[in-house]
C-alpha cells in the first residue's frame, strides 16, 4: 500500500475526502470497500484504539462488541458513530454470541482469526497453555506486541537487521520513564493478580524487542526493583546483554533505546512535548568503520500518529489485515508473545528473590517443556 493510500485511508470520512465528488471521479480519494468484519471484546482504552484503527486502516469494519461494563459499551457506541453515523454498533448479550457470529471474520482479543492483546496471558503457565493450543490452530493468531511498529523501533529494525549498519548486536538498552499508571476499569492494572504484574503486563513490549533484536531466547534474568524504582538486566546466551530501566513517577513520557553492535552504535529516543520547542524524537547511527553517520527523525504522517501509540497500532492493524490476506508480515507470533511474558515473569521473580533467574530452571518449575 502506498503512503498516499495510507494517508488517504487515515482521512477516511474526513473533509479531505471532498465529499462532493461522485465515486466515478475518485482516483486519489477513492477508498476500497472493506473486505473483513471484526468484533472487539473489551472496549476500554485499548479496545477503542482498535476500533478506531480498524476504520482508519480501512480494509475492515467493526460489526459489534462484547463488554460487561455498560459505560464501556456507551463509549464504543460514541466512537463507532463517528465512522458509521447511519448504523448502530451491535452490543452482544453474551461472549459466546460475539465469538460465534458467522458474519465476523476475526475477533480482536479472542478467537479465529485472532489478534490477542499483550500480555497474551498473565502467568507463564497460562501463556504456555496458549502456545500448546496455538500449535495446531488452523487460523491466524497474532499477538498485540505492536511496539515493533513504533517509528523509532521500525527504523532501528531496518538499520540493525536489514542494513546491518552496526554489525553484530552485542548490547541492548531500553529506558522508559513515564507518568504513573492511568485509571482503568476496576483499576485492574494496579493488582498483580489481574495484570500479571507490571513487568509482564506493561513491559512485555520491551522484552519482545529484546528477543527480536537479540534473535535469541532469554537464558538468565536479573532484576531489582520496588514500588519506587525498577531496574532489570538480562543476559542472552552470554552473548547479547540487554537491560531495561523503568520509572513510573516521571513527569513526562520518555523512551530511549540503544544498540551496541560490534561495528557501530544506534540510539533513539521518543518523548512527549514537555518543553516547548524541544525535539520529540531522534535516531542516531554511528559506525566505526568509516560508514556515514546519520541523525534522523523517525515519524509517521501526523494523522496516523494521532490514532494511538504513535501510529504503531495503525500498522499493527495493517499487518493484521495483510495476515488475513495471507501476505508476509513481521507481526508477533504466539511464541514471541510467550517469550515476552517469560522475561517479565522471571524479572518479577528476580525482584522478589533478589537472585538471578535461570530461565531453564524457571520454566521447568513452571512445568513448561520447551527447549531453551
Ligand atoms: N498493545 C498495547 O500497547 C496496549 C496498550 C494498552 C493496553 N493494552 C492491553 O489491552 C488490554 C486492555 O487494556 P485497557 O487499557 O483497554 O484497559 P481498560 O480498563 O481501559 O479496559 C478494559 C475493558 O475490558 C472490559 N472487560 C473486563 N473483563 C471483561 C470480560 N471478561 N469480558 C468482556 N469485557 C471485559 C472492561 O469492562 C473494560 O471496558 C490489556 O490486556 C492491556 O495489557 C495493550
Please provide a written account of the structure.
This protein has 372 residues and is of the alpha/beta class. Helix content is 34%, strand content 23%. It contains 13 helices and 15 strands. The protein has helices spanning 3-10, 45-57, 70-83, 95-100, 124-135, 151-162, 192-195, 198-201, 204-214, 302-305, 312-324, 334-353, 359-365, and strands at residues 36-41, 60-66, 90-91, 106-108, 114-117, 141-144, 169-177, 220-225, 230-236, 240-247, 254-261, 264-271, 281-287, 294-296, 357-358. The radius of gyration is 21 Å and the shape is globular. Nicotinamide-adenine-dinucleotide binds at residues 41-47, 66-69, 72, 117-118, 144, 146, 184-185, 188, 201, 309.
Task: Pick out its properties.
13 helices, six-stranded parallel β-sheet, binds nicotinamide-adenine-dinucleotide
Amino acid at each position: 500500500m502506498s503512503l498516499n493510500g495510507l494517508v488517504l485511508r487515515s482521512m477516511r470520512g474526513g473533509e479531505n475526502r471532498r465529499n462532493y465528488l461522485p465515486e466515478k471521479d475518485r482516483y486519489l480519494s477513492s477508498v476500497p470497500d472493506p473486505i473483513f468484519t471484526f468484533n472487539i471484546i473489551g472496549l476500554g482504552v485499548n479496545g477503542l484504539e482498535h476500533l478506531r484503527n480498524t476504520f482508519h486502516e480501512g480494509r475492515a469494519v467493526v460489526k459489534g462488541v462484547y463488554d460487561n461494563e455498560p459505560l464501556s459499551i456507551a463509549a464504543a457506541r460514541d466512537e463507532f458513530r463517528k465512522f458509521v453515523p447511519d448504523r448502530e454498533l451491535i452490543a452482544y448479550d453474551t461472549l459466546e454470541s460475539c465469538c460465534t457470529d458467522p458474519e465476523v471474520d476475526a475477533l480482536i482479543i479472542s478467537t479465529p482469526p485472532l489478534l490477542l492483546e499483550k500480555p497474551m496471558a498473565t502467568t507463564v503457565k497460562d501463556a504456555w497453555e496458549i502456545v500448546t493450543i496455538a500449535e495446531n490452530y488452523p487460523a491466524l493468531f497474532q499477538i498485540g506486541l505492536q511496539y515493533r511498529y513504533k517509528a523509532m523501533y521500525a527504523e532501528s529494525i531496518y538499520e540493525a537487521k536489514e542494513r546491518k549498519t552496526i554489525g553484530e548486536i552485542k548490547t541492548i538498552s531500553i529506558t522508559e520513564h513515564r507518568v504513573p499508571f492511568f485509571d482503568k476499569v476496576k483499576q485492574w492494572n494496579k493488582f498483580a493478580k489481574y495484570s500479571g504484574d507490571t513487568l509482564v503486563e506493561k513491559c512485555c513490549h520491551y522484552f519482545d524487542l529484546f528477543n527480536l533484536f537479540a534473535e535469541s531466547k532469554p537464558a538468565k534474568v536479573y532484576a531489582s526493583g520496588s514500588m519506587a524504582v525498577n531496574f532489570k538486566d538480562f543476559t542472552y546466551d552470554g552473548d547479547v546483554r540487554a537491560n531495561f530501566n523503568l520509572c513510573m513517577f516521571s513527569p513526562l513520557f520518555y523512551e530511549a533505546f540503544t544498540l551496541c553492535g560490534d561495528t557501530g552504535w544506534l540510539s533513539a529516543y521518543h518523548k512527549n512535548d514537555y518543553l516547548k520547542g524541544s525535539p520529540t524524537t531522534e535516531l542516531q547511527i554511528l559506525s566505526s568503520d568509516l560508514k556515514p553517520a546519520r541523525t534522523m527523525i523517525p515519524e509517521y504522517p501526523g494523522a496516523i500518529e494521532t490514532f494511538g501509540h504513535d501510529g504503531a497500532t495503525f500498522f499493527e492493524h495493517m499487518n493484521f489485515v495483510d495476515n488475513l490476506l495471507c501476505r508476509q508480515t513481521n507481526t508477533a507470533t504466539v511464541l514471541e508473545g510467550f517469550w515476552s511474558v517469560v522475561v517479565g515473569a522471571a524479572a518479577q521473580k528476580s525482584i522478589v528473590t533478589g537472585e538471578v533467574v535461570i530461565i531453564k530452571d524457571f520454566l521447568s518449575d513452571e512445568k513448561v517443556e520447551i527447549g531453551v
